[in-house]
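Fill-in record for aldehyde dehydrogenase (NAD(+)).
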Amino acid sequence: MGAEIDFTTFRNVINGELTSTEQTRHGINPATGNPNPEVPVSTPTDVDAAVEAGLVAFKSWSKTSRKVREQALLGFTGAITRYREQLTKLLVQEQGKPVMFANGEVDGALAFLRSIVNLKLEEEIVEDTEDRQVIVRFTPLGLAVGIVPWNAPLVIAVMKIAPAVLTGNTIIIKPSPFTPYCDLKLVEIAQQFFPPGVVQVLSGDDSLGPWLTAHPGPAKISFTGSSATGKKVMESASKTLKRVTLELGGNDPAIICADVDVDKVAPKIAMSSFANAGQICVAIKRIYVHESIYEKFREAIVRATAALKVGEGNEPGVFLGPVQNSMQFEKVKTFFADIEKEKWNVAIGAKGDMGKPGYFFEPTIIDKPPADSRIVVEEPFGPIVPLLTWNDEAAVIEAANNTKMGLGASVWSSDLEQARRIGDQIEAGIVWINKHFDACFEAPFGGHKESGIGYEGGLGGLKGFCNAQTININKNL
Ligand code: NAD
């Protein structure tokens, strides 16, 4: 495969080769409604070919040294850096996010890659006496499948490829049909550093995910997407007892205590609610403000939200792009329709039709909707968020935990003791204090309850792609 990557044609990568399919399809630029380039629609024959190649490649890749895998990942990192401009442009075009966030996503992928090569999953000697030595080691599982959603296609694919190959596995990436472009190019770039069959990608329609999860070849499914699909993936994987890691939906609460500097905190809450037009698994989706500062906080967050520009991702100063696809647009519209139906008070926003092409909404804050309303209970995954009030610590903790989700949460207070006291009682995989979103790649990233099973990040993330093996030696035969 040549060294120069062409960013205008898009093909699968099977066994180191760029391949096309008889049938093709295309995504839509969500900011303009224009069609993006054609991509393959993989068939069961393509799935069989990729699985076969992944299993064959596993035999030799799993025996390579850690050094070889690390070098390949570092080469991949360098190439992503070289192609960052093209990847960023493509990400804006396929996903709709503004340039600064597309840049941030590429940066996040690069930071993840640079950090993971420092993680060492080494053999552990858990007992060593005169009579016996007991060693725990971690061996690769085999061929993995990485199923990627449409909200952050580039960084999420990288977060699956890197731990899989570093631990000696091979992997097939399956992008969302809405956002296949960056993932196809990433894997094409990877061919310059990995032997054929180690990193592959298949683009397709809605049949492709179920074909891969049901196929007897793969040993592991690493899935990121909605909780509803995660349940289907687990059900399908259970037939062949594939390992699963499920990174699923969220309904993150932010608890704002009475002592915060309102003018400093409110803009941060607005940005953490409306970044990527609310389409982030760990976006703030419920804002609980102490009643003593409620009016002042509402004024400040309305001011901050009014300053957030909505538009096409390449327009200067745009903070919110469109919702990514027509299916999600229709779903988010139902929450906007509820405003009138349920007689919710609106603090700001409410416009569902921005009078321009593309799937745009105004960033919208609902003022004190009932605790059991859809906007509080469900994950809209769009730029609409409820502002709620509290006055009793135990009650706000109970409200924050009163959900099937448990991905992220944040507590905001200048009294760090109070913040920790509240944070420690929140049922969520990540609890931030006085911030939201900040990623630490050495620490677990995953959900409690219906937000997921297993986690990515840190040594535990590497272990998710491994079998544990105990070697128990009798020294005195
Ligand atoms: P989705 O569940 O609709 O799709 C995710 C992926 O699964 C896509 O590639 C899709 O083609 C594939 N898929 C769909 N049905 C399948 C099936 N039956 N078997 C196998 N694969 C199948 O999710 P989405 O709408 O793309 O993404 C939005 C959701 O993802 C939100 O709920 C969000 O919170 C969640 N998410 C979670 C994280 C996390 O790390 N926890 C990160 C990003 C997004």
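KEY FINDING: The chain has a mean pLDDT of 97.
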